[in-house]
Amino acid sequence: MIKIDFNKQNEKRITITGKSDSFHANVKDITYITYEGSVSIVHLANERKYSISHSLKYFEENLKNDSFFKVHRNTLINTEYINGTQTTHRERSVNINGINIKASRRRIALLKKFLCGKLPFL
Predict the structure, then answer these.
(1) 21-39 per-position pLDDT tens digit
(2) Confidence at 18, pLDDT banded by 50, 70, 90
(3) Cys-Cys link to 103, which of 71, 88, 110, 118 (CB 3.0-4.6 A)?
(4) For residue 120, is it within any domain?
(5) Domain range spanning residue 12?
(6) How confident is the model at residue 1 (pLDDT cuts 50, 70, 90)?
(7) Which strand ranges, in their side-by-side order, compose the sheet holding 12-17?
(8) How far from chain centre, in Å, is Cα 43?
(9) What DSSP designation does 28 have?
(10) Using CA of residue 101, residue 83, residue 41, residue 61, what is the dihedral sign?
(11) What is the CB neighbour count within 10 angstroms for residue 107?
């Protein structure tokens, strides 16, 4: 179960409860979320990772309007942590905290337009 609420400083927090444990984090501390098999992996700015059995679509819907952008069918990134993008003939990626994350051809083009201010937030 995922619960999103506001703490005393009016920052959005996420509480994720698994079978045996739960964790709390500020939404702004999530750098990116990947979906592998049937598990979503939430990556935080402090380099911690949490595995959750929710689909990426579930996170997309719950983190709408919070600077998150889907760059690939299995990856949702927090645009606040983007260090740069790289496009070659064969590959496209987004650099987040020194990690290159694969991006689709169409989504990288939309992301670049968004970052240049030519697109409203999706």
Answers:
(1) 677 788 889 999 999 988 8
(2) low
(3) 71
(4) no
(5) 2-115
(6) low
(7) 2-6, 12-17, 22-26
(8) 8
(9) G
(10) negative
(11) 19
* Non-local CB neighbours of 28 within 8 Å, separated by 6+ positions: 11, 12, 66, 67, 78, 80
Exposure string for 7-39, b = 16+ CB within 10 A, e = fewer: eeeeeebbebeeeeeeeebebebbbbbbbeeee
CATH number at residue 77: 2.40.50.1020
The predicted structure's pLDDT at residue 77: 94
Based on the structure, what is the number of domains in the chain? Answer: 1
Supply the DSSP symbol for 1.
Answer: -
Please write the tens of the pLDDT for every residue from 42-73: 999 998 888 888 888 888 888 877 789 999 99
Answer yes or no: are the C-beta atoms of 30 and 12 closer than 8 Å.
no
The C-alpha atoms of residue 44 and residue 104 are separated, in whole angstroms, by: 22
